[in-house]
Amino acid sequence: MLNNLAINVNSEIGKLKKVLLHRPGKELENLMPEYLERLLFDDIPYLKIAQEEHDEFANILRKNGVEVVYLEDLVAESISKNDVKLQFIDEFIEEAGIKEDRETNLLREYFQSFSNKDMILKMMEGIRKTEIKDYKLKNLTDYLNNDYPFIIDPMPNLYFTRDPFATVGNGATIHKMHTVTRNRETLFAKYIFNCNQTYKETKLWYDRSEDFSIEGGDVLVLNEKTLAVGISQRTHPNAIEKLANKLLTEDSNFDKILAIDIPKQRTFMHLDTVFTMVDYDKFTMHPNIKNDISVYVLERDNNGKMIISEEQGSLEDILKKYLNLDKINLIKCGGNSIIDAAREQWNDGSNTLCIAPGEVIVYSRNYVTNQVLQEEGIKTHVMPSSELSRGRGGPRCMSMPLIREDLNK
Fold first, then answer.
1. Residue closest to 362 by CA, chosen among 381, 343, 344, 376
2. pLDDT digits (tens, 9 = 90+) for 297-316
3. Taking a C-beta distance cutoff of 8 angstroms, is the pair 384, 44 a contact?
4. CA trace torsion 344, 350, 355, 357 (10° rounding)
5. Which of 132, 225, 396, 397 is most buried, judged by most C-beta within 10 A?
């Protein structure tokens, strides 16, 4: 069943109807080897091929009845009023770390020379010093930073639209990101949910102004009552408690959050790099993590007080309990080979995007895992992945579902 809300996501596997993407842009061409760590990249994707791969991703979605909308379009719509656009420009400049009045004025004038959509794309791309014709070294800080080629850093992680915000039920969470590099991305979500005519009435379960970080790759909607959130390298346990206090109320249908503690390593950056839901009773799973996870349940007692308890047993048993199933099938990334598992986990073999129960989009390069999924009865839509995968994120990372059909009761 599908309602008329702007946002509706009550499971990871309900038929996907509308999704938010960002097609990689020139921000990838502003990656430089010496600044990769600063920008959270391990390699430099070739933009032309990355765009072709991303277009094929979008085509697979459309062929399967999914409406595709793009981040830059929603933001451009959200700042259609001039006073909102000017406020957005000033806030963006401030969050880019520009403090000097001269630079602020130059950038404000520069941004206003573009149409709304082109301005958004330029903000994503980053600003090279050579682009601003009147940019000159004026003070000691300018001279000390003269070797750095950007006035404003590029935002190359934006094609992973899953992380800056998440859709939960008929509401959304706007995130405080773990790194300064990515926190600017959530400014786009702020204006979508505050100003866009379609989305401005959306309930917000978490806001970017909070003190503790949470990222969308750690948020999995297991069913209409249960949310799983990873305690990861990038999501702080205090953020999960704050989310629980807002979400687990009469304003939502959710009554518990499973906080899943995963290793704090880049290899296991988010919960969805460890496991994803692909059918009613099936999950992809990194084989090295299966017995290594602690799970804590956050829920309210009969008096409305938040209580936290530790679940005992395997992840398989815990999932069976909260999904009310007799059996759970944890499908190993890479099959039974530790070498294949390590390689394909690095290339996001576990990070599948479910578009309907038992139907997923996967990267072509993870052929071992893809075959295992097929043998388990999962239908795979295989997309090219040589360049997109260099950003260390898979099909789930690259997509933000806005509307899924509710599962049949």
1. 381
2. 999 988 888 999 998 778 88
3. no
4. 120
5. 396
Average pLDDT over all residues of the chain? 90
Rounded distance between C-alpha atoms, residue 41 and residue 30, angstroms: 12
- CB within 8 A of 266, min separation 6: which ones? 233, 392
Q: What does the CA dihedral 150, 153, 156, 159 come to, rounded to 10 degrees?
A: -130
Distance CA 68, CA 19 (A): 5
Residues near 257 by beta carbon (within 8 Å), at least 6 away in sequence: 226, 227, 228, 229, 240, 243, 244, 247, 248, 297, 298, 299
| Rounded distance between C-alpha atoms, residue 195 and residue 231, angstroms | 31
The stretches in the chain having pLDDT less than 70 are 1-4, 134-146, 265-268, 289-292, 409
What are the structure tokens assigned to 45, written together?
Answer: 């994707």
Residue 173: name the closest of 282, 246, 250 by CA. Answer: 246
In terms of Cβ atoms closer than 10 Å to its own Cβ (0-12, 13-18, 19+), residue 129 is middle
pLDDT of residue 215: 94
The identity of residue 201, as a single letter, is: E
pTM, two decimals, is 0.92
Residue 397 annotated among the catalytic residues of the structure: yes
Given the residues 195, 333, 354, 397, select the one marked as catalytic: 397
Residue in the structure block whose two tokens are 């305690």: 231
Cα 162 from Cα 394, distance rounded (Å):
10
Nearest 5°: phi and psi at 342? -65, -45
What is the per-residue pLDDT across 219-241, written as a single tens digit (0 to 9) for each? 999 999 999 999 988 999 999 99
Q: Of 274, 266, 189, 267, give the one whose Cα is nearest residue 230.
A: 274
* Residue owning tokens 């190993």: 332
